[in-house]
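Review form for a predicted model. The reviewer records the input and the model, then writes brief findings.
Reviewer: anonymous (R2)
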Amino acid sequence: MDIIPVYKLMSGENYHVDGLRKNTIWFSNVEQLNDPYEGRIYFEQEEVSIANMKSALT
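Model under review:
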């Protein structure tokens, strides 16, 4: 399976800069998202179990 890059736009808040220093990334929680398609995930493999999907997201 190829690794697909993920891009995140950042506004330069302190937690964004701190994340760059610590090699981490900050995301809003689901309740704070304002686009109905944000946070949706598409799995390419057809035989991925619900348990594996949940495990990959936690």
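Findings: The CA atoms of residues 17 and 28 lie 16 Å apart.
Further findings: The two ends are 20 Å apart (CA to CA).
Recommendation: see findings above.
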